[in-house]
Amino acid sequence: MTHGCFYMKLSPLEQSILDSFPVGAKQLLVAVSGGVDSVTLLYALTRLSATLNVSLHAAHLDHQIRQESAADAVFVRDLCAQWNVPCDVESCAVADLAQQRKLSVEMAGRQARREFLQRLAVEVDADAISLAHHQDDQVETFMLRLLRGSGQSGLASMRVCQAIWWRPLLGCSREQILAYAQQHGLPWVEDQSNKNPKYLRNQLRHELIPQMLKINPSFKTQIAGLTQRIQVEEDYWQEQVVRQVNELALPCADGLRLGRDALLALHPALRVRTLREALQQVRGDLQRIEAIHLQAIEALLSGIKSQAQLNLPGCWVARRYDALWFRATAPELPSPFNLPLPLSGELELPDGRVLRTSTQDELEGESAWVTEYSLAALSQPLRVRSWLPGDRFVPSGMFGHKKLKSFFSDNQIEIEARLTMPLLVCGDTILWVVGARRSGCAVAGQGQGKVLRVELI
Amino acid sequence: MTHGCFYMKLSPLEQSILDSFPVGAKQLLVAVSGGVDSVTLLYALTRLSATLNVSLHAAHLDHQIRQESAADAVFVRDLCAQWNVPCDVESCAVADLAQQRKLSVEMAGRQARREFLQRLAVEVDADAISLAHHQDDQVETFMLRLLRGSGQSGLASMRVCQAIWWRPLLGCSREQILAYAQQHGLPWVEDQSNKNPKYLRNQLRHELIPQMLKINPSFKTQIAGLTQRIQVEEDYWQEQVVRQVNELALPCADGLRLGRDALLALHPALRVRTLREALQQVRGDLQRIEAIHLQAIEALLSGIKSQAQLNLPGCWVARRYDALWFRATAPELPSPFNLPLPLSGELELPDGRVLRTSTQDELEGESAWVTEYSLAALSQPLRVRSWLPGDRFVPSGMFGHKKLKSFFSDNQIEIEARLTMPLLVCGDTILWVVGARRSGCAVAGQGQGKVLRVELI
């Protein structure tokens, strides 16, 4: 975004803010810890707010983990009062939260901050939340993710603009921010936890990254450039995979189904990214999804088993013949049923369909939805029940028994459909795999006595 | 590749060799430094050669940089004799080569080895050259490239199979190789230069990577996995960019021309990769090409100048109106010319075309390739010359002068074509921008005396 006329000379830091300003934002929420980065960001924003025609609102969360944290909160409140920026301060017992959510204190603090800021953004009707992350933070994030075994997407690290979050200083170095703060005589507090070597980020900051800078003095700007280029490629992949998921999607009542042949025809790189996108769509995110999970899905896809399923962290993936089926959770298996069928009347099946029976003198003819039986041949009361392991029947027109399991398999009837499929039985004899195949038993003949007519509605 | 029957139990290391064996290879050249990695590879290959139905040939290059290097050569020669593997040993004064080629000793050694192996591979008719790089080398290569500011493609690091090179141990750890060597009682020599901290690779091996392993014990396997996934994506990109370059290519006599609008329509990630592929095609490789060069080409492409050019390392890129033109070197600019034109006869132009003149009594009519002039109006001898800065003429049908430069620009005549375009002049007056536009001077009228007819053939 360019702005027509200025009455002051802008520093590169201020220029970064202007260049990345979210077009049309009228209200900004600024996260202020009280450290030099966020104080500098807040100050630069106050200088630019008239030019940008934007109102500021500051936010500070007291983590209650350091002794001086209450003092930091007072510092931020006073500074905002002095700079005429409305400010909200809240407290959160992050250590307790960490225990409660089974997270590291770092991660719990991060979650608490994000939740606080997102809630406050709604309250003050903010168009964006400004964070003071800078280039050094970006390099640390990249190295942290590399160390933790992140994939390519994770290495893209932080973005200047991502949903409501805005990081205008992401291209500025720590030195640049410090120089700006000193030049403008800004006050700030030092966060002592930045020196605590128990945090991995601090080990990186104070040990590993300085060693890398000794080897290559341009290391930080090069990694920052790399993250930008990875981000551009991630955007490209995102376009591709969204298109693929849309193109490959099959009709599906719950979850997402993708065509197997179409998946297998994709380049492996595009395929694995498309599978990730499917997971993202059914899970909401990709947390705890690792390369090994995607390899398992690949194996499911290309394996010889035509029906199989995987329970993965936060989702369930199944192969069902020519489809790969993604759901947040495994589908609930329908309960078995076993119901008496009157010789004349209606029976509602568990899936909502209805079987209607009537006793007649004449044949009317069978179809996929209608069968007729010789009433005289039915020695026992009729029942309608669900499939049981070991079920066999004599398909009409065939000699001998066939396992129902084989019949289901031959007809590509999926596991879930097998369990809801009603079977019309007389004692141990399956008369009709309802709607699918009649058995050769109790066939009614013209003029051979009463006929039981069973109709699926 | 799978093999039907074995008479021995294979170790995972040997299995890696079998699994990645280049299908159909009959003759292998094995690079043997004498260190544990290459001795292990050679030994495992001798064990598998019958199963693989492949002949082995060893190769050792004595770098002459270490005191014990001659002894290493003897060691390798003796070992190969003992194992019945034919072996070629050569010497190369790598230190001198480094000075001569202005390279580091490491890089000169690498080049010397590759040249030696490639030459020997031709001599022994080898189908592949086996190198003993393993997972630890791969992680070091990744980290080295990251430290040196490599882009995404470079981070793909080494491949198991790449052209004639085969690295069957790339998935095996250093510990695995050492254990195999010890189990089989193999002898080897220690390369003292592996301990020299002046080599960056050794700093990584002995300092940085151990620190990273302390933070994350799975660091090495995770980085190895990351390089594999990056390789799969690089293969995808390669497919995409080759297709793009083919689709976007314009007819071009020398070098490569891509359509500008089509390039601008691509996603930025695909565009920058397509530009890199164009560079690769005209240069043969991408050495010394950095992100900044691609940014310069992007600027050339999207800038307001319709003609401009860049001299980049090992190549030349120009915008020429709606095309981007890639060449290994800048095109040679044609020499200026200034030739007398007889009133009747032929003149061969520098570009090979011919101007034919004749004096006639009658008009015959003009065309794009023929003009006619009133001989009486031609006060001075005619000449044909190339464009000079400041040239102006009166285009026929217009009032007043026009700068020839503007005329060229209006007609999108490219810089190189401007310099070969012949101008028919009489003194200071341009009569004809040959083949492009006649001037309004010396127009011949019917029945107004002798006519000079000039024809471009």
Automatic annotation (TrEMBL), chains A, B:
GO terms for cellular component: cytoplasm. The keyword tRNA processing applies. ATP binds at S33, G34, G35, V36, D37, S38. It comes from the Bacteria. One of its GO terms (biological process) is tRNA modification. It holds the Pfam family TilS. The keyword Cytoplasm applies. Residues 382-454 form the Lysidine-tRNA(Ile) synthetase C-terminal domain. It catalyses: cytidine(34) in tRNA(Ile2) + L-lysine + ATP = lysidine(34) in tRNA(Ile2) + AMP + diphosphate + H(+). Belongs to the tRNA(Ile)-lysidine synthase family. NCBIfam families: lysidine_TilS_C, lysidine_TilS_N. This is tRNA(Ile)-lysidine synthase. It comes from Desulfuromusa kysingii. The gene is tilS.
